[in-house]
Design goal:
The protein has 10 helices and 7 strands. The protein is an alpha+beta fold. It folds into 3 domains: 71 residues, Arc Repressor Mutant, subunit A (Orthogonal Bundle), CATH 1.10.10; 66 residues, GAF domain (Beta-Lactamase); 60 residues, no CATH class. The strands form 3 sheets. A 3-stranded antiparallel beta sheet has the order 5-6-7, with helices on both faces. The protein has a two-stranded antiparallel sheet with strand order 1-2. Strands 3-4 form a two-stranded antiparallel sheet. A hairpin with a 2-residue loop joins β3 and β4. α8 runs antiparallel to α9.
Length: 224
């Protein structure tokens, strides 16, 4: 599939070693118990020396930690970065504003409470108050979850503007790794849909384009 102008420009200015570093972090994000160098090499199909150097550099910056058993887990520095990133939402420090309300709600119910937002096609946890019950839900600020997995994501999806919801669904159907409930948002199809330049997705205002002539015009614009 040919690249769109935006996708081509993005690919041209990428740094491969940073892409590989992000692949390492993304895999560790999905492994609560960590992962060994061997597992990272096999799952990411990277040379062992490359994975070793990336992990050493990340460990130096406290972005990953090595366990007593030799596995690697995400490090505490990421929590500080995530807290600052989550705080800057529309110029409002959402975690600070939400925390006292979450703490009162958790105290009243015994359950964990959180505030989440939709960010780049996923659910981003911005603030959390831990529950007191034995089996209370455990989440951490900065954690990213699939939009469809859990009540919070479904509530946010239900109240999205129609155009934004349509783009999310279009990515799920057209993603090069799909159909999938978790489009990667980096493939050519997802980038084009985000930019509104995809040949496979035609956006329209259903409220104003209801006539037969409108439908015929849209049909004629579709590239088969």
């Amino acid at each position: 599939m040919p690249m769109t102008g935006l996708a081509a420009a993005t690919a041209k200015h990428r740094i491969p070693v940073i892409d590989r570093m992000m692949d390492v972090l993304a895999l560790l994000e999905r492994r609560n118990d960590g992962a060994s160098i061997r597992e990272l090499v096999e799952r990411l199909d990277l040379p062992r020396t490359t994975v070793y150097r990336i992990l050493n550099t990340l460990q130096l910056h406290d972005m990953v930690r090595r366990t007593a058993g030799g596995d690697y887990r995400l490090g505490p520095r990421l929590l500080a970065l995530a807290a600052r990133a989550a705080a800057d939402i529309g110029g409002v420090d959402l975690p600070v504003l939400a925390r006292p309300h979450l703490e009162r709600l958790s105290a009243a119910t015994g359950e964990a409470c959180k505030v989440s937002v939709i960010d780049d096609g996923a659910l981003l946890v911005c603030a959390v108050s831990e529950g007191k019950r034995e089996y209370a839900l455990t989440v951490v600020p900065g954690q990213r979850l699939p939009l469809h997995a859990g009540a919070a994501g479904k509530v946010l999806l239900a109240h999205l503007p129609a155009k934004e919801l349509a783009r999310i669904l279009a990515k799920s159907v057209n993603c090069e790794h799909g159909p999938t409930a978790t489009p990667d948002n980096t493939c050519h199809a997802c980038v084009a849909i985000s930019a509104g330049s995809s040949l496979d997705v035609i956006e329209m205002d259903a409220a104003s384009q209801r006539g037969i002539d409108d439908i015929r015009e849209i049909r004629d614009r579709v590239v088969l």
